[in-house]
Write a structure and sequence with these properties.
Elements lengths: L5 E2 L2 E2 H5 L5 H4 L5 E3 L4 E3 L7 E7 L2 E6 L5 E7 L4 E2 L13 E4 L4 E7 H9 L2 H27 L2 H16 E3 L6 E3 L5 H7 L4 H13 L3 E3 L4 E3 L5
Antiparallel strand pairs: 1-2, 3-10, 4-9, 5-8, 5-10, 6-7, 6-9, 11-12, 12-14, 13-14
Length: 223
């Protein structure tokens, strides 16, 4: 189960998007974006939250030196822009499409808050989701500041195992089928794609992982 983005096996997109709710369906459309299109910029007004219907979205910000810091790369069913329901007036990050066919379900903050007020259990889950994301982001930023690149990669692979992994019945390996490209992975751990390739091959030689174009495996340790 993708524990980070799903609550009780319910995809957020399937229960939240106004297009699926009769009250809001009539006048609701999806927003479409191409690769490198921005959904919003830093300092934009925060009046909506967003659900991804299709494609991928990069969340990040720029350091004082102008370097891009990637906080998250999100895919179908995932929520972003939650500042709008937490009382924030402006964005402290940017959101950018990194797929050529990204489709977004925008939800006005007032609509989202009404949905939450009408369903206490759902509201609690949303706040748990936001809290969990903040904890994960804090841990990732600490890794970027204080850990070497190989350690950051190992931590990231552990996260992938939790979110996308399943155990092989025959070998005991953890099989991971995730939505990230190598470029995505490099951005998320704050390194270059060539460096990521070198480290992945080192881990493969050390028999910690194995990988091909279709899947990544964390190998079971030999006793």
């Amino acid at each position: 189960m993708k524990s980070l983005w799903f609550f009780e096996d319910v995809n957020l997109f399937n229960i939240l998007c106004p297009h699926k709710l009769e009250t809001y369906k009539k006048n609701h459309d999806f927003d479409s974006y191409k690769k490198r299109d921005y959904i919003y910029f830093e300092d934009d007004s925060a009046s909506k939250v967003y659900l991804i219907e299709k494609g991928k979205v990069k969340i990040g910000y720029y350091s004082e030196e102008g370097d891009e810091i990637v906080k998250a790369i999100l895919t179908r069913g995932e929520l972003f822009g939650e500042t709008a329901i937490l009382g924030g007036l402006k964005r402290d990050e940017f959101a950018q499409s990194i797929d050529n066919e990204t489709s977004i379900c925008p939800i006005n903050a007032d609509t989202m808050l009404k949905l939450m007020q009408n369903n206490q259990s759902f509201s609690l889950n949303i706040y748990k989701f936001i809290g969990f994301r903040f904890k994960k982001l804090e841990r990732r930023l600490q890794l970027l500041l204080f850990k070497d690149t190989k350690t950051r990669l190992m931590e990231f692979l552990s996260e992938l195992a939790v979110d996308y992994g399943s155990e092989s019945a025959t070998t005991g390996d953890t099989i991971i089928r995730h939505p990230y490209t190598q470029k995505d992975m490099a951005s998320l751990i704050g390194t270059s794609r060539p460096t990521l390739n070198i480290l992945m091959n080192e881990l493969k030689e050390e028999k910690i992982i194995d990988f091909n174009r279709k899947e990544l495996r964390i190998l079971k340790k030999k006793s």
